[in-house]
Amino acid sequence: MTLEVRDLTIDVSGRRIVHGISFDVPDGARVGLIGESGSGKSMTALAILGLLPDGASAGGSIRWNGRELLGLADRELAELRGDDIGIVFQEPRTALNPIRTVGRQIAESVRIHQRVSRAEAKRRAIEEAARVALPDPERIVDRYPHQLSGGQRQRVAIATALACRPRLLIADEPTTALDVTIQAEILDLLLELVERDGMSLVFITHDLAVLSRIATHGIVLDEGRIVEEAPVATLLTEPASPVTQGLLRDATATLWRPGGVA
Q1: pTM: predicted TM-score of the whole model, two decimal places
Q2: Are 17 and 44 in contact (CB under 8 A)?
Q3: pLDDT, tens digit, for every residue of 7-26?
Q4: CA–CA separation, 161 and 45 (whole Å)
Q5: What is the pLDDT of residue 86?
Q6: Do 167 and 200 form a contact (C-beta atoms < 8 A)?
Q7: Is 238 or 108 the better-scoring residue by pLDDT?
Q8: Start and end of every ABC transporter domain (predicted)?
Q9: How far apart are CA 190 and CA 151, in angstroms?
Q10: Burial class (CB in 10 A: 0-12, 13-18, 19+), 44
Q11: Under a CB-based contact definition with an 8 Å cutoff, are residues 174 and 88 in contact?
Q12: Half-sphere exposure at residue 114, Cβ-oriented, CA atoms within 13 angstroms
């Protein structure tokens, strides 16, 4: 399945913030959208899923496996979310419901999309918790988000996004709130799961070092426009745009060292 974005525009309260960008994510590809805050990368991800905030609107075309997503009814978009397309957000503390156990949250999309029993849903939640390497999965599924560490909460968010084995995963700065060591563990986990399940990936970040660990192709955004698009290895060694050159200077040295791609 392929994601095709054509001439995408996004307006917020009458102000254009994304200016006609186009890109493809072929089946099994790992594509990164990279840029500074305000470049339009996260809003692009929200547009794909039909989750733009109030006051925002999108134009152009977003097609998933040939199906136009822009203008699709909320009910039809809800059927795609979690089933065909999963998303992991930046901050799991706000993405997860504080008054529901993490097991119930992992199992929610399974119950919605696959209509399994409560007992089967819990079994699946334990299975998914184990798949993302959460400790003692039989017990951890009965805990609440505040009882877990930041890295564990992000693993729960990943398990929730992948429980129905979507064909495309959108990861919106999923490691930014974590320390560098946990950040590397989460990136390695995501890469392992994406490769194991043969998913396509859209990975959003402001850090070229992070992108180098997980994506093979990068799209650089600046003020809602694509300023460079190339294999990640090329962005690291031969950045053509001043924007990319600036991102390279700011790359997290602990995750990537000049002279090689992590």
Answers
A1: 0.90
A2: no
A3: 999 999 999 999 999 999 99
A4: 14
A5: 93
A6: yes
A7: 238
A8: 3-248
A9: 13
A10: buried
A11: yes
A12: 18
Secondary structure element (H or E) that encloses residue 87, with its range: strand 85-88
Residue 96 CB: number of other CB atoms within 10 A?
21
pLDDT digits (tens, 9 = 90+) for 129-153: 999 999 999 999 999 999 999 999 9
Radius of gyration of the chain (CA): 18
Domains, the chain, ordered by start? 26-52+74-84+168-262 (3.40.50.300), 91-165 (no CATH)
Quick one: average pLDDT of 154-162?
93
Sheet holding 30-34, edge to edge: 85-88, 168-172, 200-205, 30-34, 217-222, 225-231
Sheet with 56-64: list strands edge to edge.
15-25, 3-12, 56-64, 67-68
Q: What is the pLDDT of residue 217?
A: 97
Instruction: List, as own/partner pairs, every contact residues 133-139 make where C-beta atoms lie below 8 angstroms and the sequence separation is at least 24, other chains included.
Output: 133/189, 134/159
For residue 2, the tally of other CB atoms under 10 A from its CB is 16
Question: Which amino acid does the sequence have at 42?
Answer: S
The better pLDDT of the pair 21, 180 is held by 21
**Which residues touch 35 (CB under 8 Å, ≥6 apart)?**
41, 206, 220, 221, 222, 243, 247
Distance CA 114, CA 247 (A): 42
Residue 107 buriedness (CB in 10 A; 0-12 / 13-18 / 19+): buried
